[in-house]
Amino acid sequence: LAVRCPRLQLRSLSAVTSAVWLAAYALFVLSENSMVLSAAIFITLIGLIIYLHFVKIDQESLLVIGSLGIQVTSSYASGKESTTFIEMGQVKDVVINEAIHMQKVVYYLCILLQDPGDPQGISEVVPLFQSSKPRLDCLIEVYKSCQEILEQRKTALQSS
Amino acid sequence: MVLKVFFPSCCSSAESGILIGRWISEQSSAVILAVVHFPFIPVQVKQYLSEVQRVTKVSVSVLGSWSNSKQEKEESLSEFLEDLGTIFSHEPWIQISKEGGSKFWSCSTLQKHSNNPKEEEIILVYYDQRKVMLSHLHPPLDTATSADHKADDASKLSAIFDTVAKSKILFMTDRYDDGPIKLTHWQSDGVEASIIVELMKQASVPACMLLTFLLSLISGICRSRVLKFWPLSFLWSKLSTCEQLGHRLQHLQVISSNKKAQTQTQLMRKANIFVSLLIDVALGILLMSWLYRKNRIGHLADTLIPVADHVAEELQDLLQWLMGAPAGLKMNRALDQVLGRFFLYHIHLWISYIHLMSPFIEMILWYVGLSACLGLTVALCILSDIIALLTFHIYCFYVYGARLYCLKIYGLSSLWRLFRGKKWNVLRQRVDSCSYDLDQLFIGTLLFTILLFLLPTTALYYLVFTLLRLLVVIVQGLIHLLVDLIDSLPLYSIILRLCRSYRLAAGVKFRVLEQQDGKPLRLLMQINPLSYGSVVQTYRLPTYSCYPKDSWTSLCKKLFLGELIYPWKHKGEKQD
Fold first, then answer.
1. Is B109 found in the same domain as B9?
2. Does A70 share its domain with A132?
3. Where are the transmembrane segments (chain B) (predicted)?
4. Does residue B153 sit at the A interface (CB-CB below 8 Å)?
5. B568 contacts B480 by C-beta, under 8 angstroms
6. Cα–Cα distance between B451 and A152 in angstroms, integer?
């Protein structure tokens, strides 16, 4: 199950670059030092690389294997992938939560982890699809598929 | 339950044989460690396995059969393999077969004694044996559970990693050994070893013994009674260089101890200390070579006296400014003159002292610079100590100004209470009302007004010298922070994470490979390395770190009241 994020907008990129360069040109006119301009170009390039490698998430995906666990991958715009694997023994359930943020209600899918000491308690809540923020209908599909697989695990546990 | 078979990717091209490994029944997973080829004698195989089990304490057994045939499936071979199942009884008996050159293998299990014979789903997980063997799993959660809990929810992955790591002895025989059994595993093409590593291991034992002997000598000298007399011990405790040297000595002791590191963390700590010391000394020698080239030490010594003179002149100008009308404020002339002349005389003493020392400065500096070869941290500590010594007069002025101001504030507060007719009750630690006589009131009010009108002058002197002192303290604090950083950075772990990232694992990641209907699901298991932040956090070396003793509010309160401030607290210092 993979969810795609909105791509990097050319408009916002050019807006930010021109703002930075205008400020640098103004500084150059004031200080008569040409280093300011080259520094501005340098900073823009470095900032873009950092943004693409660490901030801008391209795709998020969820892999559920019934007997092994759940794997969450996010791949960044520069190709970097960061993965987390949660074993099935630690997963209690997968649910859709509602959150009230400012003036709107946001739905997000999350994994509930089991507390090792207390079988009924929950030790951690891991939210999924944080950057792509899919809408409720998409979340419901994902939720249904996850629940199918988790049900199989429960029946397998009970029968063995 | 779904049966999971962990197959090493190096055995994919092995010839037909039987599979040996460990069966973990509570997770219904089979970890395959090697393939034993034909021809073999079953009795010898069983003997070998029991020996391996005895040494490694891992329950290794025969799990199934593996057939790799270039042509289509041969009936006779498959029957033979099934018959093997009766010789090595194992429940369930796994049969994996690969036909031709196809990527999709067929996997089936034989259950002989089960009650409900149903078709089990099988998942094939490929893993890289060498990487899993060498890697160390970092549990993200606190392992503070009791022993019986641990057995129940022991993580599946750690069981697998454990199995492969403990079976090292199984991987020691390669195909060139003449034994009754021929195995295929990741080292079967030849056992890996490195000459350099072996040589270093041999050489390290006498080196460690020599180092331990030297260190015991040095620590014996340090602890001797001669150095414990009062003025000297006070001096040692104040100089940060001695602390740093003691810290490094401790590190050397850790490295040169004869005991082999038991756990992974101890091994990493030793390695980190070793690499950190090495880099420190290398940087120190680099610094030393830069300093001594082109006689920079001489230049430094030559510029030191003029700099000290310059600082003293600036201070004199400052005092002249304070004695006049600083920032438009009108000071009390008499007190001003007294304080100003007092401090000016001090500066004059200081300047003459420095001029007295000037012929020896170059030589002292030259010899002190030699100690930079002990490490960059030692050089930085020496720098911080030199700064402290050179600005000693600022410290003295600060103390004088602070004491005067403190006295004034106390006097003012107690006379203010007298003004209002109250008194501080020492027994009850509170303010009580009290009736004073007329002459007491008279003198008290007089003193109060005198102190009050002299307050701005003292306060101004106090403010100026406190700011100077804070400046020096901040500079020293920065140097100490840098020293701490160099001390505590786990360089070996970071380099390991960079070059051999599979050794430090935070977990695993799975990739789904191509699938075909009717064949089992194929997954590739790869190691997910730890992030740099958690590497640094897990393997940080402990230091005698210095951090601010007080919060901002208590610092401001102390400054206002005129108490002496020592903002940096060292770990291990007694709290007074």
1. yes
2. yes
3. 203-222, 273-292, 338-357, 364-391, 397-419, 440-464, 470-495
4. yes
5. yes
6. 86
Q: Residue A68: list chain B partners with CB under 8 A.
A: 4, 123, 125, 156, 510, 523
Domain count, chain A: 2
Taking CA–CA distances from B158, the nearest residue in chain A reads: A87
Identify whether B507 is part of a domain.
Answer: no
Q: Would you state the pLDDT for residue B146?
A: 40
pLDDT tens digit sequence for B395-433: 888 888 888 888 888 888 888 888 787 888 788 888 788
Q: How far apart are CA B176 and CA B342, in angstroms?
A: 90
Interface predicted TM-score of the whole assembly (ipTM), two decimals: 0.71
Strands B546-548 and A81-87: unpaired
Within this chain, do residues B60 and B76 fall inside the same structural domain, yes or no? yes
- In angstroms, the CA B162 to CA B58 distance is 9
Q: Which of B193, B192, B173, B197 is nearest to B183 (CA)?
A: B173
DSSP class of B498: H
pLDDT of residue A7: 61
Whole-angstrom distance, CA of residue B179 vs CA of residue B51: 14
H or E element: which one contains B511?
strand B504-512
* pTM (two decimals): 0.76
Could you tell me the sign of the dihedral formed by the alpha carbons of B107, B112, B118, B121, in that order?
Answer: negative
- Report which residue type is found at B320: Q
Q: Which residue has the higher pLDDT, B197 or B473?
A: B473
**Chain A nearest C-alpha distance from B509 (Å):** 6
Does residue A22 sit in the same domain as residue A97? Answer: no
| Axis crossing angle, helix B296-323 with helix B438-488, rounded to the nearest 10 | 160
Burial readout B61-97 (b: 16 or more C-beta within 10 A, e: otherwise): bbbbbbbbeeeeeeeeeeeebeebbeebebebbbbbb
Residues of A in contact with B521 (CB under 8 A): 65
CA distance A36 to A34: 5
Task: Report pLDDT digits (tens) over B121-139.
Answer: 778 888 887 887 777 777 6
Instruction: Please report the pLDDT score of residue B143 as a whole number.
Output: 41
The two three-digit tokens of residue A100, written as one number: 């009230």
**Is B226 found in the same domain as B356?**
no
pLDDT band for position B188 (cuts 50, 70, 90): low
**Other C-beta atoms within 10 Å of B487: how many?**
22
* Tokens found for residue A157: 């546990």
pLDDT tier for residue B436 given thresholds of 50, 70 and 90: confident
- Asked if A93 contacts A149 with a C-beta cutoff of 8 angstroms, the reply is no
Question: A73 in contact with B at a CB cutoff of 8 Å?
Answer: yes
Q: How close does chain A come to B508, measured CA to CA in Å?
A: 6
Q: Which chain A residues contact residue B507 at CB under 8 A?
A: 83-85
DSSP run (H or E) holding B17:
strand B17-24
Q: Which of residues 74-113 of A touch B (CB under 8 A)?
A: 83-85, 87, 89
Q: Check if the beta carbon of residue A72 is closer than 8 Å to that of residue A62.
A: yes
Give B62's pLDDT tier (boundaries 50, 70, 90).
confident
Residue B309 to residue B295: CA distance in whole angstroms = 23
Q: Which two tokens stand for residue A124?
A: 């951690």
Structural domain includes residue A113? yes
- CB neighbours of residue B278 within 10 Å: 13
Q: In this complex, which of A66, A71, A89 lies closest to B2 when CB atoms are compared?
A: A66
Does B390 reside within a domain? Answer: yes
Q: What residues contact residue B176 under an 8 Å CB cut-off, 6+ apart?
A: B190
Residue in A67, A83, A85 closest to B123 by CB = A67
- The three-state secondary structure class of A61 is strand
Is B327 found in the same domain as B233? Answer: no
A118 lies in the same domain as A146:
yes
Q: In this model, does residue B148 exceed pLDDT 50?
A: no
Contact with chain A for residue B509, Cβ under 8 A: yes
**Residues A65, B523 contacting (CB under 8 angstroms):** yes
Q: What token pair was written down for B73?
A: 């499936």
